[in-house]
Structure formats: structure tokens, C-alpha cells
Amino acid sequence: MSPTSLRTERLILANPMDPRLPRNATPWDRIIATLRSPEFLTLVIFCALGLLATVALNLLVPNFGEITASLQSFF
Question: Which pTM value belongs to this model?
């Protein structure tokens, strides 16, 4: 591979014709596009379920904090 062949190859990171994000997108448009992405929504749902499970364990088991503190000595 010669150095001249590296100059002609381009790395295309995103589809320029992607309708979700126009070329003249403002930073606000990029933030909205990120918040609407399926990956972000999946992450939010996963974190919300983890928070809900933690709150439920705290309410169902009154000494949950003491149990986790004693188990932390093993890790």
C-alpha cells in the first residue's frame, strides 16, 4: 500500500442522506436526535427498571442497606 493510495480513500462515518439529521443541523437538532434514538431510549428504560428494582428492594426489605454493606466486604 503506497502513501498515495491512503490519500484517495475516505472514511465515511455517517450516511449523508440520513433523514434523521439534516446537513445544516444545529446543536439543538443534534441533541433532539440523540434523545429520540432507540439506543438512548433503551438505556433510559434499563436504568429506570434498575432504579425501580432498587427502590422496591429498599421498601420490601427494611434492612437492605445493612445487608448490602455486609456483602461489600466480600467484593
Answer: 0.53
